[in-house]
Amino acid sequence: MDDVNPRPGRPPLVLTVAGSDSGGGAGIQADLKTMLALGTHGMSVIAAVTAQNSLGVQGYWELPVEAVRAQYRSVVGDIGVQAVKTGMLASAALVETVAELLSGTQAPVVVDPVGVSKHGDSLLAGDAVDSVRSALLPLATVVTPNLDEVAQLTGVQVTGEDSMREAAAAMLAYGPRWALIKGGHLPGEAVDLLTDGTREHWLRAPRRENRHTHGTGCTLASALAASLAKGLDVPAAARAAKEYTTGAIEAGFPLGSGLGPVHHGWRLAER
Question: What is the pTM of this model?
Answer without folding.
Answer: 0.94
